[in-house]
Amino acid sequence: MDNKTNKIMKLDSGKEYFINRQILYKGTTYYLCTLQKMDEEGNRVPDDEIVLYEEYKEDGKTMVRVVEDQEIAKTIYSNI
After folding, report:
1. From CA 19, how far away is CA 6, in angstroms rounded?
2. Residue 61, Cα to own-chain centre: how many angstroms?
3. Residue 29's closest CA among 1, 10, 6?
4. Measuring CA to CA, how many Å separate 74 from each of 4, 54, 68, 71, 80?
5. What would the DSSP string read from start to end of 7-36?
6. Calculated CA dihedral for residues 42, 44, 46, 48, nearest 10 degrees
7. Of 11, 22, 61, 73, which has the fewest Cβ atoms less than 10 A away?
8. What percent of the chain has pLDDT above 70?
9. Each residue of 37-72: pLDDT tens digit?
10. CA nearest to 36, candidates 45, 27, 26, 28
């Protein structure tokens, strides 16, 4: 597993997220991310949106989706 902490993850939607933490829980990788936006000078700056993503494989590609299981989210948030 590559450490992606402190890196930018760009989604197909075009949104970019800064990976604050990478967590391995029960064999699944999770990313605690902050949405990035561009300021007037073209610099990437954090937005107020914080998201917990889960990594999964689909058709051999690595994908992410928002964690919707509140028990998993609660467990991860309480242990980071």
Report:
1. 5
2. 16
3. 1
4. 22, 14, 11, 5, 10
5. -EEE-TTS-EEEEEEEEEETTEEEEEEEEE
6. 50
7. 61
8. 99
9. 989 998 889 898 999 999 999 999 999 999 999 999
10. 45
